[in-house]
Specification:
The protein has about 800 residues and is an alpha+beta fold. About 40% of the residues lie in helices and about 25% in strands. It has 28 helices and 33 strands. The strands form 5 sheets. It has an 11-stranded mixed β-sheet, with helices on both faces. The protein has a 7-stranded mixed β-sheet with strand order 27-28-29-30-31-26-32, with helices on both faces.
């Protein structure tokens, strides 16, 4: 057992005023003594996963571990309390990157059974433990060659933060992402059905009705030991039969896998964590669903059916009925694990991502091979996108003489390789409104072909913002390739804290100020994210005399922004990330269920029973202009009643909303509603619709009618209308106000990032930890400037 003390030399340990130690556990019997701590930490893992539990890890290791070495790292504090576990095992062999390598992997990974692994931490010491584990690995290079960590949920802290710290150490790292699908379940079955597409809903109900007419239909859960053993045999047999009918081998051909599932199902059954269902037609099982329960989540692991009954849709019926039982039992999430097959989307699943990455120390055989593999893949993607004919020729020839010749490492660094790949991109920097106007057609065209976009990235939104708030010092970076515009980074230069001799020149995203938008960031065509991000950051560095720092707010969580942030980290920018509250209401329920979701709606309707209540959606330009006038006055009156000025205190904000209305009305994306009491408008709400999302921007109501909750009643009417028209989510945008959570909205925080090249005045600003410290540093920097000293030379 090896131990590394993490004492005063560790900055995080100093901050907590304690020391930490890391030890390696290599025997299963030693781990069994730690099982209570393992389960304690696993309960804190987010998002919930059954596959980080001690039960799963122990059973998996006993079934598959003979071919590997246990390599679990345990972190303790100075009181010997376990505050972190890295559940690794060591595998020796080829890992797809060249010669033999000793790879550290996560227990449970490597056998294609399940997904959703990660490192376990005490929430109070997560950052310290993560750093301590990496310190131990750095201090014991003789023990490993490659970190090969897979299927970590991207929204877990042990994924992106671990990758970030690996890169900060200068290690070679290559991430890639795979999809997985999750259904967020509502409170009722009817509400769930209403959230599905009309076609899916009708298909499900028709298939169930037809089978019930022809057979005796029964969904049975296996709970006793004998039922579980017999049910598992059915699952395996049906699964094998189904795959063999397609000409493929099923996963239960291996005796070791059959034994593993028997063991884990028996143990999980005893702990009430198994969820095994059989769909019987006339008493004979024709389909089965095997899953595991963890807190409020059901993980769907195995789906099986009799191929002879496929025409009856027994697989679809089994899935639908199991989801129904989950809703009735109060399960909150239905996790389909890896893959984004169409049937999962039909079930109302949203797509999330697993992060997989390999990492190695630089200038080692594994590091050189990993860097070469990454360069090869990036080169192939660039060639396929920019020179498809040449790429097809290379693929067809399959000759060694035609293969890409990679420069040897370490003479050519990853940074230089990125610059070489970016050389095929033509960049244009737009600095005025005329140049921005010329981009209109190409801008919206590439927005439609991006991997993800919001209405707030459209040219019309940006143009309305520019016309309302005056000319800005634009710095829009546009990238062109053979197929036209492939990416836009829409920036402008803003003075901080205010224009003056000693102000910082901060690059911000267009329409970032004021806070009307959400989901901004870099725009790039699908599959061009990496090459454009590399080229854009390169251009920023070449023009760094024109700016000091980047301040990117309300960033959307998408592939383009993730690639941009990764590129900034690779360039060693000083980075400070923050989360901004942002609430979204998934519309997975029926309009009839609105009153039950918000009891206040019922009470307010009773109060207004004797009044004439009228709701109106505005369609024509005249109606919208009239409603905007009411919005401005009601919004201002509401905030003045609180002693504040409100959003429309300046004429520019009102002009912006008029511009937006004029631009978006022809695109049928404006969604403005009014509520009247006895013929008098008492509430107005202004929103936008993009694809299947409705964005709520601004609202106003008469403060004299506050007791009737007219704002809440108008929200209820709009939400009901959205559900009826097929809108899938209601986006409240930035803010964490209580009325949003009362509707059941869930948090999907925006990310905000401040960054600057290292050893600059901008980096000093980024790293300031508080307003007090920032003011002190800023005063010192100004003093040095006044005295004739260059503040950038003083930074280390």
């Amino acid at each position: 057992m090896r131990t590394l003390d993490v004492g005063p030399a560790n900055a995080t340990a100093q901050a907590f005023g304690s020391s930490f130690s890391v030890e390696r556990v290599s025997l299963l019997r030693e781990l069994e003594d730690l099982s209570p701590d393992w389960d304690r930490l696993a309960k804190n893992y987010s998002p919930s996963s059954y596959f980080v539990s001690w039960t799963w890890a122990k059973t998996w290791w006993r079934s598959y571990g003979d071919a590997y070495e246990l390599f679990v790292l345990v972190c303790r504090n100075d009181q010997q309390r376990i505050i972190g576990i890295a559940p690794f095992y060591r595998a020796t062999g080829k890992s797809g990157i060249g010669p033999q390598a000793r790879s550290l992997r996560l227990i449970g990974d490597g056998t294609d059974d399940v997904d959703g692994f990660g490192l376990l931490f005490d929430p109070q010491h997560e950052q310290t433990c993560r750093r301590a584990f990496l310190d131990w690995l750095a201090a014991h290079p003789e023990e490993w060659d490659l970190l090969d960590l897979n299927s970590m949920p991207e929204d877990s802290s042990s994924a992106l933060d671990f990758l970030t710290q690996v890169r900060e150490r200068g290690w070679v790292a290559r991430p890639h992402w795979t999809h997985h699908c999750v259904v967020e379940l509502p409170n009722t079955w009817d509400g769930y059905l209403q959230g599905l597409s009309r076609k899916t809903r009708q298909t499900w109900l028709r298939k169930i009705r037809q089978v019930e007419e022809e057979f005796s239909l029964r969904l049975r859960r296996c709970e006793t030991r004998s039922e579980i053993d017999a049910g598992l045999d059915v699952v395996m047999d049906l699964h094998q039969c189904n795959w063999r009918s397609r000409g493929s081998d099923g996963k239960f051909d291996l005796a070791s896998r059959r034994d593993f599932y028997r063991d884990i199902c028996r143990i999980a059954g005893e702990r009430k964590e198994l969820d095994l269902w059989l769909l019987e037609l006339d008493g004979v099982p024709r389909a089965a669903r095997l899953g595991f329960l963890s807190h409020k989540t059901r993980h769907a692991v195995i789906a099986a059916m009799d191929p002879g009954f496929a025409r009856h849709g027994v697989g679809t019926i089994a899935e639908a009925l199991v989801i129904k039982t989950c809703i009735e039992r109060g399960v909150g999430s239905y996790d389909f694990l890896a893959g984004d097959e169409p049937y999962k989307k039909e079930c109302g699943a949203i797509t999330k991502r697993y992060m997989n990455f390999k990492a190695a120390r630089p200038y080692t055989s594994a590091g050189i091979a990993l860097g070469a593999e990454g360069s090869m893949e990036d080169g192939k993607r660039w060639l396929r996108a920019n020179m498809p004919d040449t790429f097809g020729l290379l693929q067809k020839a399959k000759s060694k003489s035609l293969r890409l010749v990679l420069p040897s490492a370490p003479e050519t660094t990853p940074a230089l390789q990125r610059l070489d790949r970016a050389a095929g991109i033509q960049l244009r920097v737009v600095r005025d409104h005329a140049g921005f106007t010329a981009l209109r057609h190409d801008w919206n065209d590439q927005l439609q072909q991006s991997s993800a976009s919001t209405i707030f990235q459209s040219w019309e939104w940006m143009d309305s913002w520019l016309r309302a708030y005056g000319e800005k010092d634009l710095m829009i970076i546009a990238g062109y390739a053979g197929q036209g515009l492939i990416g836009v980074l829409p920036l402008y230069v803003s003075a901080w804290p205010k224009p003056g001799r000693h102000s910082l020149r901060v690059l911000r995203l267009m329409s970032d100020d004021p806070d009307d938008a959400g989901g901004l960031g870099m725009i790039a065509r699908r599959n061009y994210e990496q090459v454009f991000a590399d080229a854009a950051v390169r251009r920023l560095l070449e023009a760094k005399d024109a700016w000091d720092a980047l301040d990117l707010n309300v960033l959307a969580e998408n592939a383009a922004n993730a690639t941009l942030l990764t590129t900034l980290r690779q360039r060693k920018f000083a980075i400070r990330e923050r989360s901004a509250p942002h609430l979204v209401l998934p519309l997975l329920f029926s309009p009839d269920g609105l009153d039950s979701r918000h009891p206040g709606v019922v009470r307010s309707k009773r109060k207004l029973a004797s009044r004439k209540v009228e709701y109106r959606r505005c369609f024509t330009r005249a109606e919208i202009e009239e409603s905007l006038h009411d919005l401005f006055s009601l919004h201002s009156a509401r905030w003045q009643s609180k002693g504040k000025s409100g959003a429309f205190a300046t004429s520019a904000r009102a002009d912006f909303y008029r511009n937006i209305s004029a631009s978006m009305l022809p695109r049928e994306q404006i969604d403005v509603w009014t509520m009247s009491l006895d013929g008098e408008v008492v509430a107005v709400e202004f929103g936008l619709i993009h694809e299947d999302v409705r964005y709520s921007l601004q609202a106003g109501f008469d403060p004299e009618h506050r007791k009737y909750k007219v704002g809440m009643l108008l929200d209820a009417k709009i939400i009901g209308s959205c559900i009826e028209s097929g809108i899938r989510s209601y986006d409240f945008l930035s803010g964490d106000e209580g009325f949003k959570r009362e509707w059941g909205a869930i948090s999907q925080p925006y990310r905000s990032v401040r960054c600057a090249p290292r050893n600059t005045l901008g980096a000093l600003w980024v790293r300031a930890s508080s307003v007090k410290a920032l003011r002190k540093m800023w005063a010192l920097a100004k003093q040095r400037t006044i005295l004739g000293e260059d503040p950038q030379q003083k930074l280390s």
